[in-house]
Amino acid sequence: MSSPLPSAFRAKVRNETWTNFSVLRHGAFDGVLVTSKNSGTHWLKYMLAVALAETHGIPRPEYFSENAVRPYIGWPKDAPVFPGLPRLAFSHTIPHRLADWDWARGMAGLPPYVLAVRHPMSILASHHAKWEYDIKVDWLTYLEGDPAGSRYRCDLYWLARFWNRWGEVLARHAGSVLVVHYEDTLKDPRKVIEAVDRHWSMNLSPAAIDAALEAGTKEAMAQKVDPAAEPNVLQNRKTSLTDLFSGEALEIYQRKIGELFRHDLGYDLLNLPD
């Protein structure tokens, strides 16, 4: 018999599900990119921004940082910078219950979504490696997580809230949400960029997609690091997933997956990614 969910976690879920009205801003856009944390967000946004710039004959972003890419794919609150571009936004949002209901979606004019995700094991390993200097906790403590959602930017509790809400939206509105797995982007970035192009009707030129793929290599992006941006974006984790998720760490992870997650978003959550 599974353990009851922590009351702090249940309260956080209620709060996000019923009081986060940020999704209502999405009606102003032609497409919205929603990503789980540490899921290649900078990479995917940068490639799309380069492709848009090349297609429309405007300057490319100087760097791949969030602020440099915002004129092309911005925050929902941002005003348009380039009037000729499709209006695109990105977010890590966990949507209000309104996103489930046809009548509310119609009134809000919600756009087609691209939901970019990564296997939770990889997300957790990447997040801890990137932010260890800030969160200052060991790996097992981090895996135990914070049910109240205040200690970490991302942990198993945040991922469960994100996975479950978007899983609920997908169950009702799969046609309006294109799910992009980070692992598939690694294998065939062209196929993913072309799928996003079709989903958002951006009409990217083939030459622009070529340019985006060339700009999106790790070597090319290493030359486009924004000196004013957050550190360690292109971090290289030293410890393998196999070593990280073994023994007690694997037991903690698998137990919490079983307790917290109701949707898998196309992943085998309990085992290491291929």
Topology:
Layout: H1 7-19, E1 31-35, H2 41-56, H3 66-69, E2 88-91, H4 102-108, E3 113-117, H5 120-135, H6 139-144, H7 156-173, E4 177-181, H8 182-187, H9 189-200, H10 206-215, H11 218-221, H12 241-244, H13 247-260
Parallel strand pairs: 1-2, 1-3, 3-4
- Rounded mean pLDDT is 92
Order of helices and strands: HEHHEHEHHHEHHHHHH
Q: Number of folding domains?
A: 1
The computed structural class is alpha/beta
Radius of gyration equals 19 Å
- Distance between the terminal alpha carbons, to the nearest Å? 30 Å
Q: How are strands sequenced across the largest beta sheet?
A: 2-1-3-4
Unreliable parts: none
CATH class: Alpha Beta
* Fourth-tier CATH superfamily name: P-loop containing nucleotide triphosphate hydrolases
Strand content: 5-15%
Describe the structure.
This protein is α/β, with parallel strands linked by helices and 274 residues long. It has one domain: P-loop containing nucleotide triphosphate hydrolases (Rossmann fold, 3-Layer(aba) Sandwich). Helix content is 47%, strand content 7%. The protein has 13 helices and four strands. Strands 2-1-3-4 form a four-stranded parallel sheet, sandwiched between helices. Helix 2 (41-56) packs antiparallel against helix 10 (206-215). The relative contact order is 0.19. The mean pLDDT is 92.
